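Researcher: I've been going back and forth with a colleague about how sulfate adenylyltransferase might be arranged in three dimensions. Neither of us has a model we trust, so I'd like an independent prediction. The organism is Streptomyces ficellus, in case that matters for your notes. Sequence below.
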Amino acid sequence: MSTTTEQLSATTLLRFATAGSVDDGKSTLVGRLLHDSKSVLVDQLEAVEAASLSRGQEAPDLALLTDGLRAEREQGITIDVAYRYFATPRRRFILADTPGHVQYTRNMVTGASTAELAVVLVDARNGVVEQTRRHAAVAALLRVPHVVLAVNKMDLVEYAEPVFAKIAEEFTTYASELGVPEITAIPISALDGDNVVEPSANMDWYGGPTVLEHLETVPVSHDLTACHARFPVQYVIRPQTAEHPDYRGYAGQIAAGAFRVGEQVTVLPSGRTSTITAIDALGESVDIAWAPQSVTIRLADDIDISRGDLIAPVGDAPATTRDVEATVCHVADQPLVVGQRVLLKHTTRTVKAIVKDIPSRLTLDDLSQHPAPGQLVANDIGRVVVRTAEPLALDTYADSRRTGSFLLIDPADGTTLAAGMAGEAFASAKAPVVRGDEDGWDF
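Model: Here is an independent structure prediction for sulfate adenylyltransferase. You can compare it with whatever you and your colleague have in mind.
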């Protein structure tokens, strides 16, 4: 790697998530990664050593570096998403350690929703199991561009290359059918540190990168300015003071793309057009602003704009619709059923909606679509059709992870029911036929 490339890498940030079945050694891998990359403070390591001794362990249990909840340490499992921030001379990282237990699969959606890479762990003794397939499906559903298959506990299968090769082939075939664009398989032993930070002396048949080396060198693109420009309005600023009697600005965070003074824009869902006269950022006027900056945009015309409206360039605005077809991951304990009244939250806009149809549920074993399941239960992935009370300006999730995603919420208590991805979420899947008619709906 050249000096210039190293300097550029040092300024980049990689968001990645880890996932794996219970007892696959995921927390141990994260702990080993932090420890061997010298990203653990002395007092943290001392606390882990003391906790390990109190449990009768001679060596420090590195899994305790991430299993921070008392319930997690007592049960030896990960429950909540644990975020860790660390850096090497070549790159900065935000790590989301997500739960492996099937009951907490929904938490992986949270951890992987903003990730550019997912590390999926597999126990070399067990191979690809249902939970492995579920994690691969979630990664594909969320359009995570890079997936690492970490085949752990190679020391317990005598570092046998055929074992690794069989698991890697099975997982790669499955994930490729889901449309995952890049898959890298790495044989490791998290407990002993083989191929985590340093190359393993026990697997000379493997010539690929270690986990950390791959994390440091995988291409990462943060160029949101190349995406369709989208600005969800969060707040309308009207000070109405003697100093600023006519000031009217629309504040929020640019979700994607860039906006310039003098640019013609459309306000959705009304469809009214105007011209940007000023952009205020950090108390100063600027000529251009881009994602993910938080700014205030001022327009030439006095248009009725409120929280939840979307500002987009004229000629590059998404179509508005009241019929949302999407793939969802159901995350609530209560089922999602046809006819259920929900709230749909998209960017800064929340509208009333009805679940009009549930055309299919994904079967993880063979990736087939189970037609007309009638409901989705916790951890199910399925297709839904939702009818909203007001028009929404959605992109497809394939075009924009920010403005193509939404949440379905229980209007009674505010519980999140499902995380949705508009349009066809799986890159290789065929859209199922949408059934049902227009009769019997309130809006």
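Researcher: What would you highlight for our discussion?
Model: I'd start with this: The CA atoms of residues 14 and 400 lie 19 Å apart. After that, consider the following. Residues 225-313 form a domain with the Elongation Factor Tu (Ef-tu); domain 3 fold (CATH 2.40.30.10).
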